[in-house]
Design a protein that fits this description.
Helices cover 56% and strands 7% of the residues. The chain is α/β, with parallel strands linked by helices. The protein has one domain: Rossmann fold (3-Layer(aba) Sandwich), CATH 3.40.50. It has a four-stranded parallel β-sheet with strand order 2-1-3-4, with helices on both faces. Helix 6 links the parallel strand 3 and strand 4. The longest helix is centred in the N-terminal third of the chain and has 14 residues.
């Protein structure tokens, strides 16, 4: 496996990005990891926004964990107090990345994970768009095949390729969506 990516809660929060990242985790391009605390965060925030979907969100969380073998990192908690981040609530993410031997943290919150801190651990923080673009550069055929399989699974309701790419743009993956549009259409 090429490298390990810790998926932050914000990367698992939106269904289009979560589905894409989990589908791409099914390739051998990277190893996806996260923690129960990260699961707690994205599901808590999603339930706060959509309380009527609480049971569905719980089922989705179980499916997320089942979709990637050995995805959950544990035993990182003792590292948290020693980490120096401006947002103390993000220290658990860095601690998990260290314990899980992640190369990158996939997050929208790049300012919360400064290079000056992460470099000492050999970790980088990447925006999801940069991450997916990187995977496209590694093997665009595997990425495109994973997306085709994802779209084939989306049946209720079905999602057209153009609509799917627009959804990726809406969640901040404009570069990736543009690159995928050239390869898939």
């Amino acid at each position: 496996m090429a490298f390990t990516a810790l998926l932050d809660a914000c990367a698992l929060y939106s269904a289009p990005l979560r589905d894409l990242l989990l589908s791409l985790a099914g390739t051998d391009l990277f190893r996806a990891r996260w923690t129960e605390a990260i699961n707690d965060e994205w599901t808590r925030n999603l339930k706060a926004k959509r309380p009527e979907l609480s049971e569905k969100i719980d089922r989705t969380r179980l499916q997320v964990d089942k979709s990637v073998p050995d995805c959950l990192i544990s035993g990182y908690e003792s590292l948290i107090p020693s980490l120096n981040l401006s947002d103390l609530n993000d220290r658990h993410v860095l601690a998990a990345a260290i314990r899980g031997r992640a190369d990158v943290i996939v997050t929208y919150n790049l300012e919360d994970f400064p290079d000056s801190v992460l470099a000492g651990f050999g970790i980088e923080a990447w925006h999801p768009d940069r991450f997916v673009s990187h995977l496209l550069s590694l093997d665009d055929i595997k990425v495109c095949n994973a997306i085709k399989e994802l779209l084939a699974r989306l049946r209720n309701p079905p999602v057209a390729l153009n609509d799917y790419l627009e959804n990726l743009e809406k969640v901040g993956l404009s570069i990736s969506a543009s690159r995928l549009r050239v390869r898939l259409i």
